[in-house]
Amino acid sequence: MQSKSLFQFTLDNVLGIVIIFNQSGEIVYANQAAMKKLEYQDELCGQSITEIFPGEFSVEGGGLAIECEIGGESHNIMAYRKNRTCFPTKIRLLKYEDPEGKLGEEDRYICTAYDVSNENFLEKKVSQVGQEAEVAQKVKSEFVANVTHELRTPVNGILGNAQALINKEEDEEKLRLLHLVERGCRDMHSIINNILDFSKLEAGKFVLEPRRFQFRNMIDYVKSNHINRIIEKGLEFSITVPNSIPEYIVGDELRIVQILNNLISNAYKFTAVGEIHVEVVKTAQTGNRIQLFFMVIDTGIGIDKAAQDKLFQSFYQVDASISRRYGGTGLGLNICKQLIELMGGNIHVESTVGKGTIFTFDIWAEIAEEDKAYAEEDAGKEYTAEFIEKDMLGKLQSMSVNSAGEKIWKYGEPENKEEIEKKMSKLILCLEMENWEKAEMFAETVKQLVEEAPREVKSHALRLKMAVQKGDYEKATAAFELLQKMV
Q: What is the pLDDT of residues 218-264, one digit of tens each?
């Protein structure tokens, strides 16, 4: 009796429905939860199981017909209350064994059921929220695409008129202002393109457009886009393409150029002294498909290890001052990452603060028809991952040594003083010629080179940069002379 009381006590206090019935379908036991949920009070015993679960049990020829599998998986079915209203449940049927052995050979069954009304409601709610979010995302993407298209027209109009006036204007002050307008329009155009690409990628509507193109001509085009301003900044710039890469390949040339332009622009933006180097190698070949591995190496300010994992996230920048000091939306690297993944590759970064950064990415492309024989002959000339890693780290180390590495950034070192003198001499020349765009670039470099200087020195470097940004010749030259005496 003690074990039976304990068994019954356990069943009575189970939160789910527990019903025991015999082979004719008569309910012989129902726990408290069953009577409460089904609203039978104490009248549930003696009722037929077919009244509670008519979809699962029925009486045929005086016997009970059971549709569900005994001991099988739980499944969903409707349970009916005394007033014939119903609610969804998840039930499972088991053969009942009497712990006291007093039931003889009569078959009895135990049915457990749980009310899943709330679960079903939440599932529908989640599904509804998901559908609403999908619609909202679609509306947002379409809105962004429409707005960026609309913005292009006035920006292009302003840019075109500014360029027309530049060709006609002779007054130096007006030309300076027109060049600022032109520069602002180009920056705005770049931001609009980034937002448009991002919205297309986010909406899954971005489509690559592969075509046959001459690979080395593309590299020359990329180099011509950057070499003048990089050299003007006092940096060295080089690109290496080995003979193992075919002359013609099939891929999305526009997007490869976009990725390289973004990475080289970042290298230029964050490198005050030293060198920028780009290298391309062939790392694998399968049939008429080849894997191209790109490296963009610079001796710039570097990226902290903790920030490297977040670098490719949307709108992320290493710290809040980056956008103020260098500009940008934080979309460029995220767009690059998504474009590279569409081309079957990945992008990675290795960096040391104060020494430089290496961005690497790989893409898959097809060999053009006319180069297939050459590619088969040259298929063995590939670079292993170990060789590439060792090679690129060696290049960065060599470049850092050539640019005096940390000593250039450490205020007071001979290398630091020498670099400040070089940039100051170029800065004053730009001020005299009133070339404010280049002057601002050198003022920013000087500001970076005195980051570890005493507060007064840094303050004067900041004043110099602000005067240059405003195009105020008198204040800029005065700030220059004061800073020159201090450094």
A: 999 999 988 988 888 888 899 999 888 999 999 999 899 989 999 99
Overall average pLDDT of the 342-348 stretch: 91
**What are the tens digits of pLDDT across the range 287-335?**
889 999 999 999 888 888 877 777 877 655 544 444 444 445 557 788 8
Task: Give the CA angle between residues 261, 209, 313 to the nearest 5°.
Answer: 50
Domain that holds residue 73: 2-115
Domain count for the chain, please give it: 4
Question: Does the global pTM surpass 0.85?
Answer: no
Q: Which residue among 160, 181, 203 closes a domain?
A: 203
How far is it, in rounded angstroms, from Cα 66 to Cα 58?
A: 7
Given a contact cutoff of 8 angstroms between Cβ atoms, the answer to whether 352 and 247 are in contact is no
CATH code (residue 160): 1.10.287.130
Same domain? For 366 and 441 the reply is no
The Cα-based distances of 207 to 140, 210, 215 in angstroms read: 19, 10, 21
Count of positions (residues) in the chain? 487
Kindly state whether residues 321 and 218 are assigned to the same domain: yes
Final residue of a structural domain among 65, 93, 115 = 115
